[in-house]
Amino acid sequence: MAKKITGPQLVLANRLDDGRAVFLTAAGNWSNKVADAAVAANEEELSALMAIAQSAEVANLVVSVTPVAADTAGNTVAPAHIKFAMQARGPSVRSDLGYQVSPNWEQ
Question: Is residue 95 domain-resident?
Fold first, then answer.
């Protein structure tokens, strides 16, 4: 049985069109920037975020909707677990390719 996550959480998914890790924002949109992620402080807030995320999954906008523990130290937000932090950063095999090369890569 999986361990229950306690503390602040954010919602992570992958865009269906390109596989990019994205985070659910407070406005109900998806952003590739973890700083834009909505952070749920309790179970009620997480349930509301997950309902929005799951409807986006049904609409085939994202896949693999996952609530993950959030590290909110200082004024930043980041996934607390290394697996999800690496997923958010993108491919680690070739740093000269993909969206990690330039902030304007997607534009």
Answer: no
Tell me the residue range of the domain where 49 lies. 9-89
| pTM, to two decimals | 0.79
Task: Decide if 73 is inside a domain.
Answer: yes
Identify whether the C-beta of residue 24 lies closer than 8 Å to the C-beta of residue 13: yes
Instruction: Specify whether the CB–CB gap between 72 and 8 falls below 8 A.
Output: yes
Question: How many domains are contained in the chain?
Answer: 1
In a domain, 97, yes or no: no
24-72 pLDDT per residue, tens: 999 999 999 999 999 999 999 999 999 999 999 999 999 999 999 998 8
DSSP strand E in the chain: where? Answer: 9-15, 21-24, 30-31, 62-71, 78-79
Burial class for 34, CB neighbours closer than 10 Å (0-12, 13-18, 19+) = buried
